[in-house]
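Morning, I've got a small favour to ask if you have a moment. Here's the protein in full, and shout if anything looks odd to you:
***
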Amino acid sequence: MAGASSGVKRPRPPQSARGGKQPIEKGRWAAKGTKPLPEQASVKYVLTLIVVHVCRKVLFIPLEVKIMLYSMGLFVGSLICDFLPLPQVYMGQRDNVFNLYYVKVAWAWLLLVVGSFILLTSATIGCGHREVIKRNMSRLVVGTFLWYFWSQWFFGYVENRTGSCLGKAIIRNKYDCNTGGHHWHSFDISGHAFLLVYINLFILEEARTIDGWEGIREQIRLEDHHRGEAQNDPGESKTTLEGLTPYDMAILKINYEQFTPYIRCIFVAMTVMSVLSDVMLVCTIIFFHTMPQKVAGGAIAMATWFLTYRVWFKADASPGLPGCGIFQYQNMKEKTREVPLRRRSSICKEHRDSLPMFMGMPLYGLKKEREEKRKEERKKEFEREEDRSTMEEYSEGGEGRSGAWAGGPLGDGASSRSWRR
């Protein structure tokens, strides 16, 4: 019987009964109105951010630097390679694997990769609104139209108008000349130079959407906290999501959690496309076309990019710039810099002094106890002040009475002495 009773586990008394301490509240902190802490980052999440950061460093080269490198490479590099004997290498052949399966179908790759990126990002920052998705996807439609106009129509038109058939001058058409076994000599604007430069600039502009993307998670967390509080602090900073309806907020949270892993993977694929386009552009500069043909193709690509992304897309009647949604999530660091540093330091000091700390972490459970101690100290200080003021009044009254009795019953010593005489 004793053995059976010893095997039964007794329930452990609560911590408050054993040590007299209050249990730590779970979920929200004990003090109402405090901001919730972010979730602990996993190893997979940290490694993903490292990869994305490296891709950002590779892809987001300043546009001025990239334009300068393209201009110098197409002009100076092509001019040098036109007069130097070039070795016979695999990348100099037209049937190399990168030329066949990437450059020849490069715009199809761009539609697949960049189109998916625009679709997922616009569905997230647009909270599922079709108008936002259509407006962002229309930039891809504009780019496809311009690519088709230049490479499939204009370049061919210039080649036909400026060419002649060697050995058969009577033939005035490139197709008939080539099928007849002759060579068509003309000013052939480099379609490869145009395509690779334009794809690189297009990817660079559309990838700007990922700027500030990781900060949306923090904004969602803070906005959930603000909306969950019954009374918000009027002095507390607002988030950029405060204007969203509850339905838009719910769609934003769902889309952000579902689409962000795919957006990161597509961003890495866009970086690979950009690097491969630069490599193939170098091969084009070295092995294909002449300097004027490559300069013309690159200049048309840069002019097309400038007129769209730097002029037209900034206007109201346009598809808009990348990253346009129903809330602002980019350039948040610049907004926080507008707060004076002295004001922010004073706010942090007041918050730090109002809470007990242990190893840099606030102890919200001891806040009430500390406030009670402060009330007791203020009460004792008030009682001391009252005692001090009472003693001062008593001492002033005593001095007045002693002066009056020193002069006699009438309060004037000189008059009393004269009366006695």
Notes: The first helix runs from residue 2 to 7. The chain is about 65% helix and 0% strand.
